[in-house]
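Supplementary notes for students who missed Thursday's class. We covered one full example, reproduced here. Read the sequence, then the structure, then the short commentary at the end.
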Amino acid sequence: MENMILFFLCFLCGAIPFSYLIGLLFGKDIRHFGEDHNPGPTNSFKAGGPVLGIPSLALDFLKGAIPVFVLTTTYDIAPVAFVLVCIAPVLGHMFTPVLRFKGGKGITTTFGIWSGLMLWEVPVFLGSIFTLSVVLKHFLTKRVSDKATVITASSLLPAFTFFRFHDLRLFALAVLNSTLLIVAQFREELRI
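Structure (token representation):
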């Protein structure tokens, strides 16, 4: 019962669509900006530059980092519950009831949950892969899509966590997290 409550609390933290709400404070529905019509920080930057983008990015990151850090350092959580509690903010962000279950892609919240767990190692790895993909996209070829960038980083996450930490809970979390990030890239085609 306690694990279900922890999952629900983390899901609720993730379900607060900060980017969307900050946009509304400035009179903008950020879902109308960008190709994907998603309520995430990227479209906040497109809608209002750093004034909208920075607070959206920070709050979407923190809604993953704070609950995961607090709960995993406060409670002794069984392995399966650990994975579910840690992924809950990302699920909440992607499937927020506030926006009829049409949330963001979960990338910023993913950085948050891994920062709440590992502080810096996994976020630096993910950030490095994203940065390398963007550099390759812009300087070497114009053929690499944004989807390919996310899929590349997401696909490497489980291998990195497995070989670096040798912890099956973290590996299971990485596999689930990667799957969600990849599915989010094809949300419109899959109609979810």
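Commentary. The chain is about 75% helix and 0% strand. The two ends are 29 Å apart (CA to CA). If anything here is unclear, bring it to office hours.
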